[in-house]
TrEMBL record:
Residue stretches making up the Glycosyltransferase 2-like domain: 5-132
Alphabetical list of Pfam families matching this protein: Glycos_transf_2
GO MF annotation: an example: hexosyltransferase activity
InterPro entries (UniProt xref): Glyco_trans_2-like, Nucleotide-diphossugar_trans
Identification of the protein by name: Glycosyltransferase involved in cell wall bisynthesis
Keyword set, alphabetical order: Glycosyltransferase, Transferase
Length: 311
């Protein structure tokens, strides 16, 4: 049987946390639930303590300084504290469905498979959150990929390098990974990214580890959409959006350069990184830099970001 450590980073999630934990704690495969509280300003810490006192599967941790360090550093602490052979993640305002580990039970019989990912659905908890989400993501019922894949095909798909569109991405809530694979690759979340650290992690994971798709045609977890979802609040291609995308792609660019990825992959990452780098510039300098970059790398004019520059 799988022995899974579920890592839940907790920050101001008091009204959702019990449902989240209850959705995971009953699985026989779940060895432990690791709550890592990140200096919430609501009653989250009190709820964490209550839950941990009621069930020995539930363990509570805080950062050594009891400070706020963001989701990346908080998940990293959870990984360090995990004792299970497998790691999964769950956001404190989301929850697992009963089929969460159905694919894993079979797929992980193959020792070469190091990670399995599936689809996640949405539940609208507030009308404002629904409107913000649907404005940005239309009315996507599932966050998933378009077809089954494994190994390098997953990495290529996430970089939009496959002949047919692979899909957007897979959500951390729908990922199960061998802890030994994370340790072998020395892979952790970029703690300096306050948003997009999950996408950054997944792309690096897909390069270093052998991933395989599991259940991708129906949800195995649910994401709660409400007024305080940070990602849905940012207007696409606004200055704030471009800045966050720049930091995300710069993280990937620095990683790809340091790891010496094949030229095709470095080029793809560079073009996205440079596109958002150019979006940070203003006035004549911005347009002159776009022209110069276009002369050096004409492919940048074909990226999906090529005309999305705020003045």
């Amino acid at each position: 049987m799988l022995d899974i450590s579920v890592i839940i980073p907790v920050y101001n999630a008091g009204q959702f946390l019990e449902k989240s934990v209850e959705s995971a704690v009953h699985f026989d495969e779940v060895k432990e639930i690791i709550l890592v509280e990140d200096k919430s300003t609501d009653n989250s810490l009190e709820i964490c303590r209550k839950l941990a006192s009621e069930n020995p599967k539930i363990k509570l941790f805080q950062h050594p300084d009891q400070g706020n360090h963001g989701a990346g550093a908080t998940r990293n602490l959870g990984i360090e504290k995990a004792t299970g052979s497998f790691i999964t993640f769950l956001d404190a305002d989301d929850y697992y469905l009963p089929n969460r580990f159905d694919a894993e039970k079979e797929i992980f019989n193959d020792p070469k498979i190091e990670g399995v990912f599936g689809a996640i659905g949405v539940e609208y908890l507030t009308e404002k959150g629904k409107q913000e989400y649907q404005t940005k993501f239309k009315d996507a019922a599932l966050t998933t990929v378009n077809y089954p894949a494994e190994g390098e095909e997953v990495f290529r798909g996430l970089l939009s390098l496959t002949p047919k569109a692979f899909g957007t991405f897979f959500h951390l809530n729908a990922l199960t990974i061998r802890k030994s694979a994370l340790d072998r690759a020395q892979l952790r979340f970029n703690k300096d990214l306050r948003v997009h650290q999950d996408s950054d992690f997944n792309i690096k994971l897909a390069y270093h580890c052998h991933l395989k798709s599991g259940i991708i045609d129906k949800a195995i977890a649910i994401r709660g959409i409400h007024d305080d979802n940070r990602i849905t609040k940012i207007v696409q291609y606004s200055p704030q959006y471009n800045q966050r995308q720049y930091l995300y792609w710069k993280s990937l660019y620095d990683w790809a350069s340091s790891k010496g990825l094949p030229a095709e992959y470095q080029k793809r990452i560079y073009l996205s990184y440079k596109s958002f780098d150019l979006s940070q510039k203003k006035g004549l300098a911005k347009y002159s830099n776009i022209v110069l970059e276009g002369l050096k790398n004409p492919e940048i004019l074909k990226t999906k970001y090529r005309f999305n520059y705020y003045k």
